[in-house]
Amino acid sequence: MTGRASWGKTPRQSVEEECARRGKDEVVAGCIALLRGDDGDGALIFALGGPPARWAVEGGEPGPPYWLRVWALRGLLWAWDDDALPAVETALNDEAWRVREMALKVVARHRLEDLIDPVVAMREDESARVRAAVSRAETCLARGSR
C-alpha cells in the first residue's frame, strides 16, 4: 500500500488531490465516518483506496470491510486533524491486524503522544507486523511532540 499506485499517483498525492477538491476538513470527516462503520462516499473511498477501490465508483464487489478502515486511516496519514484522535484510538483495538498496523502508522506520523498508553499495551499483539509498528510508533513518540 505504499509507493506509486498503478494509476500513476501515490496515496499521498491522491489524498492531497481529494483535499483540494472537497477540503481537508471534509476528507478528515469522511475518514472518521468510515472508521465508525458508515458506508462512505464512493469518490472518497476511491481516492483513499486507489484502484482496489474502483468498485466504490463503478459498482461491483467490495473487498473485506476492514479495507475501508485501513484506507480511512491511510487518508489520515496525509490529512490530519485532532478531531480524528478518538477514531484512531478505537482503531488501535480493531479486530483486523491491518487496521491496527495502519492506526499505529498514523500515531507515529503525527506523534500522537496522547495515545502512548494504548500503543504500549499493544507490545504483545498477536501480529508480528503490528508489534513492529508498535516499536516504530514508540520510537517516533520518544522523539517528542509534533
Automatic annotation (TrEMBL):
InterPro entries listed in its UniProt record: ARM-like, ARM-type_fold
Domain of life: Bacteria
Highest classification ranks of the organism: Bacteria, Bacillati, Actinomycetota, Actinomycetes, Propionibacteriales
Organism (species): Nocardioides luti
Family annotation (SUPFAM superfamilies): ARM repeat
UniProt name for this protein: HEAT repeat domain-containing protein
